[in-house]
Amino acid sequence: MGPTNVALYKLYQADSRLREAEKRLEAVTKNVRLQNRKVDDLTSRQQNCSSDLVKHQAKNAELELEIKSRDEKIDRLRQQQSQAQTNREYQALLIEINTHKVDKSKLEEESLKLMETIEKLQKEVETLGNQLIHEKNKLVEMQGSIDAQVRELSAEVESLKPAREQAYSVVPEKVRQIFDRLAERYDGEALEPIDKPHPKREEYIATICNIDLTVDIYNRLHSRDELVFCPSCGRILYIPEELIPEKAVNKPKEKKARKSKQDLSAPVPLQTLAGSVVRSVDQEPDDR
After folding, report:
1. Which positions ≥6 away from 168 have C-beta within 8 Å?
2. CA dist., res. 242 & res. 246, Å (int)
3. Structural domain spans, the chain
4. How far apart are CA 26 and CA 32, in angstroms?
5. What is the mean pLDDT, run by run of 10 residues, along the chain of 288 residues?
6. Among 8, 67, 107, 150, which residue has the fewest nearby CB atoms (within 10 Å)?
7. What is the pTM of this model?
8. CA triplet 195, 255, 249: central angle to 5 degrees?
């Protein structure tokens, strides 16, 4: 492959090693992250529940003040009623007293409902608080159990980044853009190897998509410095290290040299003929 394709392949290898290390780190910390999310969710629920509790308690306090104010008004009206001079004045005060009583009754009903809600919220806040303590303790235990693994894998990830950055800097800008786009689309699998499934046939396939490629695909990748894309998925094709030219390209077998007619009709040396005649005579049986 040409220098651009070689640099691209080295980038692909460095990027793959880094991604694999990051995936191992992510797998180790997955349960911790899930547990941390659970703790955050419980914390948020407890905060919201506590906020609702405070609002309901404040509302109920206002109702209690209003109920107390109604009671004071009713007491004053009753004092005025006891001092009424006429029946008309007495009845007017009585109507006003009854009106305040009705309003007070409504406020008391609303306060009663609020008290029930407050009681439920208090229990919920307490339950969430206990759950939160339990899940936080569990999170601390989980973090402690994987702490050594996380440090080791984090160090591995950091050690692989310089090689990836170096390989990335060697690749031309336009090719880097193509690589980044494909790597994002296919989770790092920006390149796709080719293969020759039948040793005796001049046939090639794209191994990921498993589709047939043109016959000259190996020669194009081997001798030219150009990007060749999979016609199915659009990944960049490359020649894997094990697909060497001797394996990838069939060479015609050399034919054995055939004797010409001139060689067949050439005269046999006399010594050879004489020797043959002597041997024939010696081998004949004696009739005498």
Report:
1. 11, 14, 15, 176
2. 10
3. 3-159, 172-248
4. 10
5. 90 95 92 93 96 95 94 92 90 92 93 95 95 95 90 95 95 94 94 89 89 88 90 93 75 53 49 42 41
6. 150
7. 0.58
8. 10
Query: How confident is the model over 74-98, as pLDDT tens digits?
Result: 999 999 988 988 999 999 999 999 9
Residues 6+ apart with CB under 8 A from 66: 107
CATH number for the domain running over 3-159: 1.10.287.1490
The CA-to-CA distance between both ends of the chain, in Å, stands at 85
- Taking alpha carbons only, the member of 73, 72, 93, 75 closest to residue 84 is 93
Tokens of 84: 């009424």
Find, among 32, 282, 29, the residue nearest to 151 by Cα: 29
Q: Any residues with CB less than 8 A from the CB of 31 and at least 6 apart, and which?
A: 142
> Identity (one letter) of the amino acid at 210?
N
